[in-house]
Amino acid sequence: MSNVSPNQWGLEQIVADLRASREQLHRTRHPLGIRELPSREAVINIVAGLRAALFPTHWGAPDLTDESVDYYVGHTLESTLRLLAEQIRRALRFLPEHAQTPDADLNARAFEVAREFGTQLPAIRALLVSDIQAAYTGDPAAQHITEILLCYPGVWAMTHHRLAHALHRLGVPLLARFINEIAHSATGIDIHPGAQIDSSFFIDHGTGVVIGETAIIGKNVRVYQAVTLGAKSFAADIDGALIKGNARHPIVEDDVVIYAGATILGRVTIGRGSVIGGNVWLTHSVPPGSSVSQGKVREGERSRERGNDDGAR
């Protein structure tokens, strides 16, 4: 087929039709014509660098010693934060308040955000260690911390989420969403970077878990595969456009277990210490200590089966 000419493919007409689609019929370009987008490859490299700095003996260089590890972490962070600042600059341009910001001011703002993000890394690592410990404590199949850190999709997803949530809070929502969607494509776990998740959070198995933007999750919460913390409905304005940012996802208090396939919708509260059984569809709040199974709610009775998992391990 190497001797086929462009004319035989009809390329001139295809190119013309694609231009008409881009420029007239089906425009997707940003209203301000922004062409410099965040880079997926760069974001992947940034997360890899941050992961190596947070857990250098697991994700860093293989030959690190007690004498060299701090140098490695410092060198890795310097190059990674430099890359991050550039991607932050690109993402900030998409915010309405920065649409006309001069380049020099935007560069300065990106640097400040990246520097502030760097100061939060020790606290982010502490949260991730609590998640890892929760996985080790909550999964009888877990052999050691290294297995969890290297192999568990829930920890992979939470590593991305903890980093993304910090950037989201620092005012870079596009880049934060980018980071979490990379984890989503790798694990099947879909967490919006706006979701607030406290310490010792364990996602077991993980595939199909969905956690919405305004969800709030307390300490020591465990969820299994195919759990959804979603919205029940979407408010719209008088023109029918969806209203953004409303609190529309569940609040899950401390020490809650949600088993596989459960769906919890709307701004409802799952009280502390409750157990939500598998495949439950729940659209109302339950008080602390409740045990909810299909067709049955036992309030104030904490399940004695919390150590039971879904039998897959």
Automatic annotation (TrEMBL):
Keywords: Acyltransferase, Amino-acid biosynthesis, Transferase
EC class: transferase
Gene3D superfamilies: Hexapeptide repeat proteins (2.160.10.10), serine acetyltransferase, domain 1 (1.10.3130.10)
PANTHER family recorded: SERINE ACETYLTRANSFERASE
Disordered: annotated segments: 287-313
Designated name of the protein: serine O-acetyltransferase
Pfam families in the cross-refs: Hexapep
Residue ranges with Basic and acidic residues bias: 296-313
